[in-house]
Design a protein that fits this description.
- By secondary structure, this protein is mainly alpha-helical.
- It has helices at about 10-35, 35-55, 85-100, 105-135, 135-165; strands at about 60-65, 70, 75-80.
- The chain has 5 helices and 3 strands; from the N terminus they run H-H-E-E-E-H-H-H.
- It has a 3-stranded antiparallel β-sheet with strand order 1-2-3.
Length: about 170
C-alpha cells in the first residue's frame, strides 16, 4: 500500500499507531483472548519466575492453579489478563513498528523490549507480593499508581531510545 499521501511524519506515525491499535484490538479481543492460550502462558511463566525469585530470598511462597501467587501470611495476588503485560507488549511493538527504521533491527529491538517489559512485570509481581505481607493498602496503591507509572515510563524510555539511537541505523 502506498501511504505517500500522508506527507507529515507525525501524522503518518499517528495514523500507523491508530491502524496498529485497531488491528491489535480486533485480533486480541476476537481471537487471542477468547482462546486464553497466550494469556495463560504469560501468566504462568510470570508466576513461576516470580516464585523462584521470592524463594531465592527465603520467602515461603504459595501459588494456586487459578493465577495466584503470594507469600505465606498474605492474601496473595491474583494475576488478571489486564496485568499480564501483553497489552504493554503490543503498545511497545506498535510504537516501534510505526516509527521509521530498519526492519531487521526493529524485530530484534521489539523482542529485546518485550523481554525487558516482561522482566519488569515479574519484578512488579515480586514487589507487590512482598508489599502484600506488610499492607494490603500499600499493595493496592502501588499496583494502581507506582508500577503503572514505572511500566508506562519504561516503555516510553524504550521508544525514546529507539527514536534517538536506533531508528537512524541502516
Amino acid at each position: 500500500m502506498n501511504f505517500s499521501f500522508i506527507k507529515n511524519p507525525t501524522v503518518r506515525f499517528l495514523f500507523f499507531i491508530f491502524l496498529f491499535y485497531i488491528s491489535w484490538y480486533c485480533i486480541y479481543n476476537l481471537w487471542l483472548h477468547p482462546m486464553e492460550t497466550m494469556d495463560m502462558f504469560v501468566i504462568d511463566k510470570s508466576i513461576a519466575v516470580s516464585k523462584w525469585i521470592l524463594e531465592l530470598f527465603n520467602y515461603n511462597v504459595f501459588t494456586g492453579e487459578d493465577r495466584l501467587i503470594g507469600i505465606d501470611g498474605s492474601g496473595g495476588l491474583w494475576v488478571g489478563d489486564n496485568c499480564n503485560g501483553i497489552a504493554m507488549f503490543a503498545l511497545f511493538t506498535g510504537f516501534i513498528v510505526a516509527y521509521k527504521g530498519n526492519w531487521k533491527l526493529k524485530i530484534v529491538y521489539i523482542l529485546i523490549g518485550i523481554l525487558c517489559i516482561e522482566l519488569l512485570n515479574i519484578f512488579r509481581l515480586v514487589g507487590l507480593s512482598i508489599l502484600d505481607i506488610h499492607s494490603r493498602a500499600w499493595t493496592e496503591f502501588n499496583h494502581t499508581y507506582t508500577f503503572t507509572i514505572l511500566i508506562y515510563g519504561f516503555i516510553f524510555l524504550l521508544w525514546i531510545l529507539w527514536v534517538n539511537k536506533f531508528s537512524k541505523k541502516q
